[in-house]
Amino acid sequence: MKRILMMVLRNLYMVPYGWIRLCYRAAHVDKYTEEDMYSFLRWIDLRANKGGNVHIDAHGLENIPAQDGFMFFPNHQGLYDVLAVIEASPRPFSVVAKKEIAEIPFLKQIFSCMKAFMLDREDVRQAMQVIANVTGEVRKGRNYLIFAEGTRSKNGNRVGAFKGGSFKAATKARCPIVPVALIDSFKPFDVNSIKPVTVQVHFLKPLLYEDYKDMKTTEIAALVEERIQHVIDENIK
Fold first, then answer.
1. What residues have CB less than 8 Å from 127, skipping those under 6 apart?
2. Residue (of 217, 127, 213, 121) closest to 165 by Cα position
3. pTM of the model
4. Angle in degrees, 0-180, between the axes of helices 81-88 and 34-51, rounded to the nearest 10
5. Partners of 98 in the beta sheet?
6. Is 191 exposed, middle or buried (0-12, 13-18, 19+ CB in 10 A)?
7. Are 85 and 227 in contact (CB under 8 A)?
8. What burial class does residue 13 get, using C-beta atoms within 10 Å of its C-beta: 0-12 exposed, 13-18 middle, 19+ buried?
9. Does domain 2-235 have CATH number 2.60.120?
10. Radius of gyration (C-alpha) of the chain in whole angstroms
11. pLDDT tens digits, residue range 134-181?
12. Domain ranges of the chain
């Protein structure tokens, strides 16, 4: 990936120091508060984005709930998505990601620092346990991000079908659901180019428990998908 190489080369003076700190923190996550760890991850993210000619254009920060214990549901465009939301969101969050990316260097350390849950889509029992764990964490006041499409869209800024099961943790925790529209987030890592790119991150008005308590998870999924695609269509260049 040309852009990742450029991120490294343009930050060469700090890469060894930053990498050592990242690996140490990933191996000693309980030594740090979530706020301190998230601040560190944003520090790395900001420098990587600057070096890689990636600009984050964030909108709707006022829609992020004032009280912790909410869940982000963005569309899924590529490997860069989580990094886009990290720079855009001032509030710490963790992630539910598929186990296949758990061993990718750099992302592995990032997810360790976030205390992310890795989901095995082939193991129903393990998936149910992840839902239960996330539900408990959200009830305690942690924030999470889940990609409801389940896999990356291959159609750029066209959103794939959102799966109802992805919303089970949110409905069980009775937490605010924050739709997040990502635009051009596939370009930094999934397009073989180093041209400057702007990734838009739109935090949409949250769905509160009172808004969705009488809805099926499939209905919630369809509503969130529709709202995200609408915002993308309105803002796409």
1. 119, 120, 121
2. 217
3. 0.93
4. 110
5. 119
6. middle
7. no
8. exposed
9. no
10. 17
11. 999 999 999 999 999 987 777 889 999 999 999 999 999 999 999 999
12. 2-235
